[in-house]
Design a protein that fits this description.
four-stranded antiparallel β-sheet; 2 domains; Fibronectin type-III domain-containing protein
Length: 162
């Protein structure tokens, strides 16, 4: 988050500017800009500034300005495996993480062929019938960020002795 303001003129000059966030002093600057990092995502903060002269009392606080931080946008999705072979009746859990780690980690799972393999909202794939399916893992906050997992389903082997 970055703030900029117009310089103020005082007889004797300005020593520095004091910046307040939500009514609490968070620092001083000699210039007319202030940058702060490490703030919570999607949170509104209220800022004010006052001039500290070289001589005399500080100026009153400026008018309050509200700033709302943005959420970190997802840039990618990592999955533990990009392809998996299962037998009919088998299950497999797709583990997915969104990058960067500060982005919303919620994802959706969809199967291209639910007749071949279904997938639950938690990423549990169930092999239904022989064939292939693609499971798409997409970011809930930015659907264009996605990865696919190729699922191949084979008939189970016949029981031993048959």
């Amino acid at each position: 988050m970055s703030l900029n303001w117009d310089a103020v003129t005082f007889n004797g000059g300005i020593k520095e500017y004091e910046i307040y966030r939500d009514g609490v002093s968070v620092g001083t600057r000699v210039g007319t800009s202030f940058t702060e990092s490490g703030l919570k995502q999607t949170t509104t903060y209220k800022y004010q500034v006052r001039a500290i002269p070289n001589v005399g009392d500080p100026s009153p606080l400026s008018a309050e300005i509200s700033v709302t931080t943005l959420a970190t946008e997802p840039t990618g999705i990592n999955v533990t495996e990009y392809s998996k072979t299962l037998a009919v009746g088998d299950t497999y859990k797709i583990n997915a993480t969104v990058t960067p780690s500060s982005a919303d980690q919620n994802v959706t799972f969809t199967s291209s062929s639910t007749a071949t393999a279904t997938v639950s909202s938690s990423g549990l794939v169930t092999a239904k019938a022989a064939g292939t399916a693609t499971v798409t893992v997409a970011s809930k906050s930015k659907a264009s960020v996605k990865k696919t997992v190729a699922i191949t389903v084979n008939e189970p082997p016949p029981p031993a002795g048959e």
